[in-house]
Specification:
Elements: H1 8-33, E1 34-36, E2 39-40, H2 43-49, H3 52-85, H4 91-103, H5 106-119, E3 122-124, E4 127-129, H6 132-136, H7 140-149, H8 151-163, H9 167-176, H10 181-192, H11 194-210, H12 213-217, H13 223-233, H14 235-272
Antiparallel strand pairs: 1-2, 3-4
Helix pairs in contact: 1-14, 2-14, 3-7, 3-8, 3-11, 3-13, 4-8, 5-7, 8-11, 9-10, 11-14, 13-14
Length: 274
């Protein structure tokens, strides 16, 4: 089959888009390598990589991101599964709720969460109890805020994965051999939405690693806060850090691609052996 040639305007817009994306990146990379008039090297990259604050902030944000992914997956997988299986009429309501983090500004969201858990008692066994100390004494409150902020990405990825498979047939087949609801979810549904969960996980990690507003307002020294501080204090190292952050983001995106291909290849092999 003969491939169709691209028209002039198609090529033009592709080239214009590539230049719009690559020219600023090239300028940043060149500035990050500049060590003097006409001299280039990796001095500023070594400065960043040898900074203890870089490693500490990066690992701290990574731990928060992994906790956010775990909580988001545990909460949303059963919810999305049940909505698609038994409550399809609630899809519009869930779609609306999933869009709210895009509508509500992060500043308003984090201030509301902070005031809620620091000023309002929670009823436990009929008695008002304050749980604010546990929530605000560590990164727990930041993880909760990130779970809400990442809800659109988590929900959309999982919902697309659920709708790509025949939930009713898989569920009925598993229950016909005596599988419980928990066994159906863990042994039948999860293996079929691995790519969707990987997509949700990597998108969440990328979001958390680059989020600045919430972490700065809650006074946490995350990777985004370190990036902002470096940008204000050091020019060339800030450019190097921008390139490093860009590389980490693209590494996450490539991880989705290659892991997704691996999952699809294994599923195709299993399907072919039937």
């Amino acid at each position: 089959m003969r491939a169709r040639r691209l028209g002039f305007w198609q090529v033009f817009w592709l080239v214009a888009g590539a230049l719009f994306f690559l020219v600023p990146l090239y300028g940043t990379a060149e500035y990050s390598l500049e060590t003097g008039p006409g001299q280039y090297g990796f001095k500023h990259y070594l400065t960043i990589l040898q900074d203890p604050a870089f490693k500490a902030s990066f690992l701290y944000s990574l731990k928060i991101a992994l906790a956010t992914v775990a909580i988001g997956i545990v909460l949303m997988v059963p919810t999305v599964y049940w909505v698609n299986l038994r409550l399809p009429r609630l899809r519009k309501v869930i779609d609306f709720l999933a869009v709210l983090p895009f509508v509500v500004p992060p500043v308003a969201l984090v201030v509301g969460i902070n005031r809620l858990f620091t000023s309002q008692p929670v009823l436990i066994l009929g008695q008002p109890q304050r749980v604010s100390f546990w929530l605000v004494s560590g990164p727990q409150i930041l993880v909760m805020a990130y779970v809400i902020l990442a809800l659109p990405f988590t929900y959309r990825s999982l919902d697309a994965g659920m709708r790509a498979i025949d939930l009713h047939t898989l569920t009925e087949a598993a229950q016909s051999v005596g599988a419980s609801w928990t066994r159906v979810l863990l042994s039948v549904i999860l293996p079929n939405i691995r790519y969707a969960m990987l997509s949700a996980a990597f998108l969440t990690i990328t979001l958390v690693m680059g989020e600045y507003t919430m972490s700065s307002l809650l006074l946490f020294n995350t990777f985004a806060v370190y990036v902002e501080y470096t940008g204000e204090a050091k020019a060339n190292p800030a450019a190097a850090l921008a390139i490093i952050s860009f590389a980490l983001t693209w590494a996450a995106m490539l991880g989705i691609l290659f892991l997704g291909r691996g999952v699809g290849r294994r599923q195709g092999q299993l399907t072919g052996t039937r």
